[in-house]
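S.,

As promised, the fructose -6-phosphate run. Input:
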Amino acid sequence: DKGEYRHYMLKEIYEQPQVIRNVLEGRIHHGHVLEQVFGSDASAVFDQVKAVQIVACGTSYNAGVVARYWIEKLVGIPCMVEVASEFRYRKTVCMPGTLFITLSQSGETADTLSALREAKEQDYVAFLSICNVAGSSLVRESDLAIMTNAGPEIGVASTKAFTSQLVVLMLTTLVLGRRYGLEGEADFVAQLEQLAGLTEQVLTLDSQIQKMAEHFVDKHHALFLGRGTIYPVAVEGALKLKEISYIHAEAYPAGELKHGPLALVDEDMPVVAVAPNNSLLEKLQANLEEVRARGGKLFLFADSKAQVKPGDDLELITLPDVPTVMAPIIYSIPLQLLAYYVAVLKGTDVDQPRNLAKSVTVE
Ligand code: F6R
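Predicted complex:
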């Protein structure tokens, strides 16, 4: 039931504060992530992990890319991420001590399931499924599983499933990190506990984002930029926009601009930049000035730390300050809303975009 909401997608976007609370419920205790929530023998498995291989499709893959940044930074072990349709068909090499993680909302995605089955022929430490559907094929065929507890997701474009995956991936990062000397677990847990409240604050930007969406209705293309952990957030924002508004959107790590895509920038190419305060902010700001110097219009999501010259070529949405590590979770939300409102203005079928199915159980 959509309740007061016009579409399931909007309802699911708005459920995210509660979903984040649900994900954390029973998984943390006194500033500590509980390991047994991954499975009764999870601790013994995690003790052996020296590297991580993540496999997933679409939005779930984008969550996996965020996790790679987290795991390599906070745990300090190698983390590889690959789309399942590639992984399953190529000869892969398993490093000793690698934990294999599948990420999936449905747990029935054919390519992800086949990748898991292929990987079982190799010497992985264990197979962990991070999934939103208990009893799904992926969960049944994995040694360890943790549910994302997002509740049923009806809109074809994934929203709350994505944020719930990110929260679980952060829990995973913390349980691995404690084996490699990660300090301040209680601080990270406290930051996770702040997320639901921050998400509520970000949702109050709704009408500003709705207004921003008007600029996209007559556009055929859009560029999304981010750096570091925010790069996969930009990729996910672009995916949302193309799926439901049918606008061709592409994401680039902002540092790649001058290696090609800058040639595309003109007044018909809106550039969405996602710029929370982090060590890359200054570099990103320089990238954004390059865009403006070429006549591109900028749509910027940033916090109070961003320093950009005001102008007619800039639309700015200011988010609350958020802990740097958690920024990918928070900054995904305004991009979901942007895609949603562009699609509504264009009059597309938001919950059932053309040519797409909710669960891709065929190859
Ligand atoms: C995009 C979207 C898809 C799915 C992908 C994987 O909004 O929903 O890209 O993320 O088909 O699906 P799951 O997560 O069910 O394996």
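The chain is about 40% helix and 15% strand. The pocket of fructose -6-phosphate is lined by residues 57-60, 104-106, 109, 112, 157-158, 239, 243, 359-360 (CB under 6 Å).

- D.
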